[in-house]
Design brief:
With 241 residues, this protein is of the alpha+beta class. Bound molecules: uridine-5'-diphosphate.
Length: 241
């Protein structure tokens, strides 16, 4: 499938139209941003890793019965996906306190929850993606009650599948962000699943010592070894297959 014209350029990806109106091509860049675009940089090779990793995760989830946007990978950086209408919600699932949760609620990073938790942000850069609840989402007409119900069920199912998958790789899935889209009346998992959108901590030691991040926190927090962390996650995924 060929790109016809560019439809959109985001922070980490470009989206192109194709000759098929149902499909677009997503092209992953090495550009990295954090803090709503305030921090900018490049993570060399990130686009290739995020493209391939996201596709592997989506394929794994499809096998578990979760519908996704994935159609087919074209090459290292480009993938054909269903042209969805994105539901303007960032859906965050957390297993362990970290990042904004720790800050907002005054809970130490690394505090395990007895059960996974979910939160929604309204996807709106001008407003800084504010935290909202289901009723706000309904009031703002971001999704229907039925769609919100489907999204919640799918998000927890994704968590269960991914947590088990990464446990095998000696990695703890701390939290992650999902986005969903509408395709021919159905809610499907869209966007990406990568070290840009998940927190991955080296398993085993972090409840007694400081955790080792294998994700974008290495960029956000200037921890160094950013490229190596992305490469390490990808290596473990591919070696496990
Ligand atoms: N996240 C994301 N995009 C965002 C905000 C968060 O992919 O715009 C991911 C982030 O990588 C982490 C999870 O969602 O895995 C929870 O992030 P958090 O709310 O703690 O925000 P942060 O501390 O990253 O600002």
């Amino acid at each position: 499938m060929e790109k016809t014209k560019q439809l959109y350029e985001g922070k980490a990806k470009k989206v192109y139209a194709t000759e098929n109106p149902d499909y677009v091509i997503v092209s992953y860049k090495d550009d990295a941003t954090a803090f709503n675009g305030l921090k900018k940089g490049t993570i060399i090779g990130k686009g290739v890793i995020n493209n391939k990793m996201s596709n592997l995760m989506m394929a794994m989830l499809e096998k578990k019965g979760i519908p996704t946007h994935l159609v087919e990978q074209i090459d290292d950086r480009n993938t054909v996906v269903k042209k969805v209408e994105i539901v303007p919600l960032e859906v965050i699932i957390r297993n362990v306190a970290a990042g904004s949760f720790s800050k907002r609620y005054g809970v130490a990073e690394g505090t395990k929850f007895s059960a996974p938790t979910i939160e929604f942000s309204y996807k709106n850069d001008d407003l800084g993606d504010p935290l909202i609840n289901d009723y706000h989402a309904l009031a703002l007409n971001l999704a229907t009650a039925e769609e919100i119900d489907t999204i919640k069920k799918m998000a927890f199912a994704v968590n269960a599948a991914m947590k088990a998958f990464f446990k095998e790789l000696n990695i703890d899935l701390i939290d992650f962000k999902l986005e969903f889209g509408r395709f021919k009346g159905q809610i499907v998992l869209a966007d990406e699943i990568s070290p840009d959108t998940c927190r991955f901590w080296e398993a085993g030691t972090w409840d007694t010592t400081k955790h080792v991040s294998l994700d974008k926190d290495r960029f956000r927090r200037d921890l160094g070894g950013v490229e190596d962390a992305y490469a390490e996650i990808f290596k473990r995924i591919t070696e496990s297959k």
